[in-house]
Amino acid sequence: MSRNSPVFHVALRGDGILTSPRFNKGTAFTVSERKAFGLTGRLPSRVNTLPEQCQRAYAQLQARESPIRKNSFLQSLKDQNWVLYYSLISEHLRELVPIIYTPTEAEAISNYSHLFRRSEGMYLTFADQESMEEDFLEQTKGRDIDLIVCSDAEAILGIGDQGVGGIGISAAKSVIYTLIGGMDPSRSLSVTLDVGTDNEGLLNDELYVGWPHRRVRGEDYDKFVDKFVQLVRKYYPHSLLHFEDFGVTNAQRLLKRYRDTHAVFNDDIQGTGAVTLACLMSAVKVTGSKLSDQRYIIFGAGSAGLGIAVQLRDAIVAIDSVPKEEANKNFYLIDKYGLVKQSLGDKIREGLKEFVRPDNEWEGVDTDEDGAIRLLAVVKKIRPTVLIGTSTRGGAFTEEVVKKMAEGCERPIILPLSNPSQLVEVDPKDANEWTNGKALLATGSPFPPAKMPNGKDYIIAECNNALIYPGLGFGAVLSKSRRMSDTMIIAGARRLASLSPALKDPDEALLPDFADSPEVNFEVGVAVAEQAIEEGSAGVDWKKGEVREKARNKIWKPVYGEYVYDKDGLC
Questions:
Q1: What confidence score (pLDDT) does residue 3 get?
Q2: What CATH class is the domain 104-262?
Q3: What is the third-level CATH fold of 270-464?
Q4: In terms of Cα–Cα distance, which of 485, 450, 445, 490 is closest to 468?
Q5: Which of 21, 203, 311, 547 lies in the 20 to 30 Å Cα band around 279?
Q6: Distance, CA of 175 to CA of 470 (rounded, Å)
Q7: pTM of the model as a whole
Q8: C-alpha distances out from residue 541 to 479, 480, 481, 555, Å
């Protein structure tokens, strides 16, 4: 045991400590700890180191051939031993994050009721709302909580409404916050808001473990969600409340409702927007231009596309000092009805209204049989400098679209961000080839390098939310900010952009490698906390110069501490 190992006073003994994932060390309990905690006869005699345990666990993991079986093994490991679980994944970050998160977690969630073994968070059900506060307090009593991740599971990872299975995405996001953001897992809470489901497969499944009822909507839904949010605000006023995978009709609305009264965050909207902003900040540095100089087409105007538009617009206002109404004119959003323009009338969602284009701009432009103006026509008309895809329409950025865009700008910025890789709007190697290596590229899924005309590999940046949202959350928690402000998010995006390899070599990736995400998110967190202090929203009395050291002390690392038995200690 290292002299620098943390010391914990623990009240658990025997099977109690062996079945606690927070405190269990398995075969790593020392001889003296085994005697103190009544474990000598409960464990085989040899004491293992954590690296030895990781070696054994990795070999067991490799024996599982399919990703879903690997996912199940890792879930079981997390239920047994947090330190071993996080240490193992940290050693194999690039390999195992796709197993514990997207894309494999989507399969696990879709089969949640059939794979169910034990609960993994808090299940708040509409039918039991009268006891919500009692249930909330029962599970959180005695706990200090920094992070609460919740989902109503209406729009899970591209597979839609998954009912109570949404606890899986809340738990997976919490894991990423710990793994990459350094958040203490004992201070996080995963929640599913079970308001029913409209998934016929689940409603007709006799093994479905959630509330078998049609999804509640309208005023009843709002009251249920508000009751939960007010409990968070009442008992954990300095926590970060992360909304995840809410449907398009609720995501932006709930964020807007609560963001001025609590530190709330929606990764689908703000995380996607923030990492895309960072990517574009580095891209415009390469081109020697500004954010406000660009003409943006966003193809796919759901939660992610709208979140990107809002984040980019707000950055143009904040960084380039452009009035909001003028900044809105830089954007052309395209949804299933084509270009978002005035004549769409009631087909325009509330959040899209500030980006509506006037009809008189488009006189004489080609339309389809429904009168919609599609992507190619918009590209021909405005000659965009930035083309962003969040549509999940694989291949939508055709050769004609990409070549037409490249005719109008020296270094076209093309970001096909849809996940998974088979739904990407254009394969980056094709976009690279069609633009003769001129395009600046980033994708939402990992892709191999593309060949430049000079034979050099062009690394395709992965515009992955996990490069920024754990750091945004860590910074908010570190500073005890009562809100997650736009300026805090922009500060985090700026710090991420400053770490771009492309700033040293324009033919390098626009964002840091995902393998460096823990270090990157630490920097993002420091920038966010510094901004919170500067703007007066922090709940701490530190100076900006103290933030980095405070952040280092706050980071949770998967290492075994030294245990002392104390009947009044932790349990």
A1: 53
A2: alpha beta
A3: Rossmann fold (3.40.50)
A4: 490
A5: 547
A6: 10
A7: 0.93
A8: 9, 10, 11, 19
523 marked as binding residue: no
Q: Tens of pLDDT along 515-528?
A: 999 999 999 999 99
What crossing angle do the helices spanning 469-479 and 486-498 adopt, rounded to 10°?
Answer: 130
Is 134 marked within a binding site? no
Q: Which two tokens stand for residue 371?
A: 């009168």
413 beta partners: 386, 440
Instruction: For 316-349, write each residue's pLDDT tens digit.
Output: 999 999 999 999 999 999 999 999 999 998 888 8
Residue 389 three-state SS: strand
Q: Is 204 exposed, middle or buried (0-12, 13-18, 19+ CB in 10 A)?
A: exposed
Where does residue 434 rank: exposed (0-12), middle (13-18), buried (19+ CB within 10 A)?
buried
Q: How far is CA 114 from the centre of its chain?
A: 26
- Residue corresponding to tokens 């964002």: 511
Residue 516 token pair: 């460096």
User: Tell me, what DSSP letter sits at residue 236?
Assistant: -
Show which residues are catalytic: 101, 173
Is 360 assigned to a binding site? no
Q: Where in the chain are the domains?
A: 104-262, 270-464, 467-496+510-554
Q: Is the dihedral of CA 260, 266, 267, 272 positive or negative?
A: negative
Strand-by-strand arrangement of the 188-194 sheet: 122-125, 188-194, 147-151, 240-243, 264-266
Q: Which residues contact 333 (CB under 8 A, 6 or more apart)?
A: 297, 298, 301, 305, 306, 309, 339, 340, 352, 355
104-262 and 270-464: identical CATH topology: yes
pLDDT in tens, 291-320: 999 999 999 998 889 999 999 999 999 999
3-state secondary structure of 338: strand
Helix 399-407 / helix 375-382 crossing angle, nearest 10 deg: 10
Rounded to whole angstroms, the Cα distance separating 523 from 472 reads 10
| DSSP three-state, residue 539 | coil
- Do the annotations mark residue 464 as ligand-binding? yes
